[in-house]
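Contributing new records

If you add data, match the layout below exactly. Sequence lines come first and carry their own label; structure lines follow with theirs. Keep one chain per record. Anything else will be rejected by the validation script.
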Amino acid sequence: MASTTYAQSPHFRLASAATLVLFVAVAAPGISNAPALSFAIRSAPAEQAPATVEPRPAFDIPRTAELQIGAYSGLPTTHPSDAAFTRPDGSSFTVRDVPWLTDPWNDPIYYGVRISGWSGRLPIGGMLDFTHSKAIADVEAEAAFEGTKDGVTLLARAKLNQVLKRLEFSHGHNILTLNGLYRLPFGSDRVKPYVGLGLGVNLPHTEVWLEGDEKRTYEYQLAGTATQALAGLEIRLSRATSLFLEYKFSFSWYRAPLTGRDGGWLFQDIWRQLSERQAGTKPTYGEVETTLATHQAIGGLAVRIGGKPIGP
């Protein structure tokens, strides 16, 4: 690598030039309006005009704690990943590079809701974020298979629908995360960039049905842990509302029991799942494990509560 120092780099020179232009743009009006020096001898000092207080900008930085409630939608895309199945008879197989469809605009659409809070004097905050996405295996696609199903060795390559009728989390690849937020030290009173990092759980609605199985699994589940990273811009539209534009990346570790059961409501299904796990009950058709890595470009609106300016 070259030994060029940072001060010699083109990025540094560009940043220096931009800083100089910004300084001139900000300072020039003040310099042009500066009073001229006078050496006239006066009998008494002139009375000074009372100091005026400049009006506070319409989008001032809040000096007290602020709460935001928001909703959003956007465009997700999920990377292909392996799906590993274990069966009650001890056999197991893996499907390599399952292609996942996100289908964000068909019911149920991609959406999210969140509640966040910001400190008044520090550039930090926290957010509870719920994202409803979808992950639907394209069963018409070909994939590589390894292992055995019900004691029979699978073909090395075949269409997914030769083994799987359904493999999807379509009423949601749902993620609930608790996130730490940090406002970056640049921007303006109106445009505020931020970043965040979070950890949470997967709450999918699992729909899996294997060829040869009598029943499908169709229920909400608690299926492992998730993490996400985000970077965004908050654009203040008024004193009470904001538009936010954001990129999120989430990574989920899935371990879903295949119960062969049609479930009901979210909390009802999860309570039954946890009770069966506590009792040591094994799922009827085994388990499926996979990972879902999802990019998301989102936009939404938030209502702000609090965040009032105080002091001069």
